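Intended use. Records such as the MFS transporter entry shown here are meant for training and evaluating sequence-to-structure methods. They are not intended to support clinical decisions.
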Amino acid sequence: MSTLDETSTQRPVRVGPTLTGLMLGLLVAMLSSSIISTSLPRIISDLGGTQATLTWTVTAALLTITVTTPIWGKLSDMVGRRALINAALTIFLVGSVVCGLATGPEMLIAGRAVQGVGAGGLLTLVQIVLADIISPRDRGKYMGLFGAVMAVGTIGGPLLGGFLTDALGWRWNFYSAIPVAVISLVVVSITLRVPRRNTRVHIDYAGALLISAGVSGLLIWVSQAGNWFPWLSVTSLVLGCGSVILLILAVIVEARAKEPIIPLSLFRNRGFVLTVLASLSVGVATYGTAVFVSQYLQLSRGASTTESGLIALPQLIAVTIASTVAGALISRTGKWKPWMIVGASSLAVGVTMLGMLTVSTPMPYLWVAMALVGIGIGCVMQNLVLMAEINVDPRQVGVASAGVAFFRSLGGTIGVTLLGAILSIRAQSVVQSNATELQTAGIDAGTVDLTKIADLQTLGQPLRGIVEEAYARGVADAFLYSAPLAIVTIIAIALLPARELSTRTRGQRIEDLETEVVETSAGMSGTVPTLDEGITEDSRA
């Protein structure tokens, strides 16, 4: 009969220190993407790079985070969690060192790609380990803390990056993560004890390769089309169609694989599918507010990078308070749906308000809109992972958690890219509609390239006023087009099965299932079968 090792059931997990280590790891993973946003122009200039270098510095990490997320999740269901977290932290450390020591654009891009692999593991595994050591009912309050950490990493990163660049130099955007990651590595190594299943590992190499190649091609296509090559071009056609074909092949391979990276059976689970749908809007809102509000403030209102970071503080504060309060209420009452619907509704209202921005919108209006978006993200984002976990077999918690993170990242990235294209088209149309006024000032509207305008102070009138109006309208349109996604989130959450939050951890739930199987089999045959899978402690694996 399958049993838990004595130490894994009797020795309690040191939750406090373990959670501290996990939160530090999550923090550096979130900061890795946001901290360099305000420093990129100086970094690329110092390294002698080009606009393509800047694009790939961002895209390289984004690609590796997205494509490795489901792989980390699947591996976590097959091998020890602690070993994987240590591996992710180590990979992240190596990438950070390479970036900090970069002597040229190629070395920087390579370091960012390595950083992304480690960050993808951290973003996935931290959520999964929470399911191992804390029951769903108790996890709400901890999800709030982790949601606050993610908010600080995403929204506070640009402000921290700008400060470090001005005070110590841009390389400290990377070096500053090293001591934090080392502390996380040490704490997790010492304190984390979670049971793992002894089972033969079957790695789906073909599925991993096809998913990685297909998703990478898709992200490159949507992010670079219109910049490096026209949307309607042979390159665009080959890249787009090729990516779709690879993903179709991936589905075929996954359907036949013994241990698929993303089990297709998950998509027959209504709760998981609804969770994925709901997470798309949250992904777009999280990425979109960081990208588009910053553009609005700097290119429509003349704010500096530091000022735009400070103006975003209401959203950061709202995420922190909402995630903490909602998590505590969910843990206390066991009721999750009302708080998530309130959060999704707040998100919808906030995004719609941002869709009404103009060049002269009062700042208090913007603060209220951003706070509403923050409340929505805080109430919904982390709890969607919890919803995925309680709706699947406990043995699939790892791949389900990774699946939600994967589709949130993929959908958010593609959504923001497409909304960015809408912003550009709308902004450029505003410039063209003012061609006569520009012509009077001796400026040909056809020569105004909005993608190359980084500082309003360098522009004279009437061009500056027209550019400010163009970006205000473009950003507003981008948010209006994303508002329907928030409605989808409300509907998806409302349709989620009203499952109760268990008070038992993942390991205990697996043990319950195995006991039930043994008792059922014994009752049918009169004998007690021997399960070929046992559970041992990570530290003894």
